[in-house]
Design a protein that fits this description.
482 residues, alpha/beta, Aldehyde Dehydrogenase, Chain A, domain 1, Aldehyde Dehydrogenase, Chain A, domain 2, 2 domains, six-stranded mixed beta sheet, 25 strands, binds nicotinamide-adenine-dinucleotide
Length: 482
């Protein structure tokens, strides 16, 4: 049993009141580590140590911060195997996915923001012959970073890297359901020479440790990724205290397939965009709209492909679909399959628990589900399920599918498959979402703005957007003379 520690002031420490919670391997259902159940006292210690470190870190040169963050990136790359295995065990995702996506992306996050720190610049506005204004972008102070369980190290570092690159000190909390790689990162942070107190990692539950971060008066900005309900609470708590907020929340993304698309590429990518990471990626397309002329063909081919996905031990190389993250989450997903049936849906494949023999017999495995026969406005098609469940629906016109696609409260991402350039632009323009993928999915360029509209959140991560979020602008106006 591994006992996870908090990382405060550059030191590993147990929670103040000695309380721990269980960390469960979802592929076996067994407890395999303990996680600090930290509270207000631990968060206060972390904020104090971050405040002490701030003056030196915030006034260090971009080059110094670059060197430290590049070193950290290199150490993550060095430990890729170990970190990928830890992510797989903690989250239930296939090891192949953790090796190919999760950990390499954590490497890139630090690399990207290490270099961004050296290129970040601000504006100046000259008023010819009279005055000049220039804008300083200064680090905010101590900032809070709170992340979810679906892409643990990937999303944790996506916040921490720009916060540190911009010169802030950080108090971060990973999900209590998947804390292991954040714990391993704290060991690497010391090795990389991140000065004590610059990065603090406090483990624990949302209502206890998370809420303490949100409420602490020393935390000046909060970058949060997670559910919309949690985001609402954070906004209600932090808003009146005028803390800066970046909220990346839930989604219910449409995948719109026109008959003139490149069928084979669409089919292959749609299997991935539906079920990668057991459908537990905020960008997964869970509502698949297919133009009527190819609906029957798609339905047959798609279901055949989905049935052939191997659900199994996440550590095995041939596994396509691992375990969902927890028993509670598995029950939630199963309850949505039941709801879909009650709402008149026909389950074309999957939707049931899968029992795996041997090591994984106690794990939380689900067969990926494809459901048809539902209206766009039923609960199954309006609420976020965040698991291996998609619905497929036919449509007849662009106008109609835009209405269906935009009918949800969410607006994170959308996918469009078409061979017609003008239509791609037209539809992209009218989709209510922060991100549109055309003839692709999750083709990431870290320079681009990332985030959602409507109840999918506020603010954008990525590129210089994140450095702007993690800095405070100050305008300085200079008059030339009398
Ligand atoms: P969650 O909201 O339950 O938890 C996210 C994090 O917030 C965890 O660390 C949790 O401990 C913490 N938390 C919970 N309650 C809190 C509180 N009151 N105060 C402070 N912190 C609190 O979400 P989850 O179940 O871990 O993640 C799944 C959700 O995340 C889905 O809705 C998914 O769409 C969303 N998500 C969004 C994006 C995006 O980029 N928009 C990316 C990944 C996941």
């Amino acid at each position: 049993m591994t006992e996870i520690s908090n990382y405060i002031g550059g030191e590993m420490s147990a929670p103040s009141d000695g309380a721990f919670i269980d960390d469960i391997d979802p592929s076996t259902g067994q407890v395999y580590a303990s996680v600090p159940d930290s509270g207000e006292e631990d968060v206060t210690k972390a904020v104090d140590s971050a405040e002490r470190a701030f003056a030196k870190w915030s006034s260090s040169s971009p080059e110094f911060r670059h060197d430290v963050l590049m070193k950290l990136s290199g150490l993550i790359e060095r430990d890729l195997e170990k970190l990928a295995t830890a992510e797989c065990v903690d989250n239930g995702k296939p090891l192949t996915l953790a090796k190919a996506v999760d950990i390499p992306r954590a490497v890139s996050n630090f690399k990207f923001y290490a270099t961004a720190a050296m290129h970040f610049a601000s504006e100046s506005h000259s008023n010819a012959g009279q005055s000049v204004n220039y804008t300083l972008r200064q680090p905010i102070g101590v900032v809070g970073c709170i992340s979810p369980w679906n892409l643990p190290l990937y999303l944790f570092t996506w916040k921490i890297a720009p916060a540190l690159a911009a010169g802030n000190c950080v108090v971060a909390k990973p999900s209590e359901i998947t804390p292991m790689t954040a714990f391993l990162l704290s060991e690497l942070a010391s090795e990389a020479g991140v000065p004590a107190g610059v990065l603090n990692i406090v483990h624990g539950t949302g209502p206890k440790a998370g809420a303490s971060i949100v409420r602490h008066p020393g935390i000046k900005a909060i970058s949060f990724t997670g559910g919309t309900k949690t985001g609402e609470w954070i906004a209600s708590e932090a808003g009146p205290k005028f803390k800066k907020l970046s909220l990346e929340l839930g989604g219910k993304n449409p995948n719109i397939i026109f008959a003139d698309c490149d069928y084979d590429e669409m089919l292959e990518t749609t299997v991935r965009s539906s079920f990668a990471n057991q459908g537990q990626i905020c960008l997964c397309g869970s509502r698949v709209f297919v133009e009527r002329p190819i609906y029957d063909r798609f339905r047959e081919d798609f279901v055949k492909r989905v049935r052939s996905l191997k659900v199994g031990d996440p550590l095995e190389a041939e596994t396509n679909v691992g375990a969902v993250v927890s028993e509670a989450h598995m029950q939630k997903v199963l309850s949505y399959v039941e709801l879909a049936k009650q709402e008149g849906g026909a389950v074309l494949c999957g939707g049931e628990q899968v029992r795996i023999e041997g090591r994984c017999e106690g794990g939380y495995f689900l067969a990926p589900a494809v459901i048809e026969g539902l209206s766009h406005d039923c609960r199954t098609n309006q609420e976020e399920i965040f698991g291996p469940v998609v619905t497929i629906m036919p449509f007849d016109s662009e106008e109609e599918v835009l209405e269906y696609a935009n009918s949800v409260r969410y607006g994170l991402s959308a996918t469009v498959w078409t061979g017609e350039l003008a239509r791609a632009h037209r539809v992209a323009e009218r989709l209510e979402s922060g991100i549109v993928w055309v003839n692709c999915w999750l083709l990431r360029d870290l320079r681009t703005p990332f985030g959602g509209v409507k109840d999918s959140g506020m603010g954008r991560e990525g590129g210089f957007e994140a450095l702007r979020f993690f800095t405070e602008e100050k305008n300085v106006c200079i008059k030339y003379g009398p």
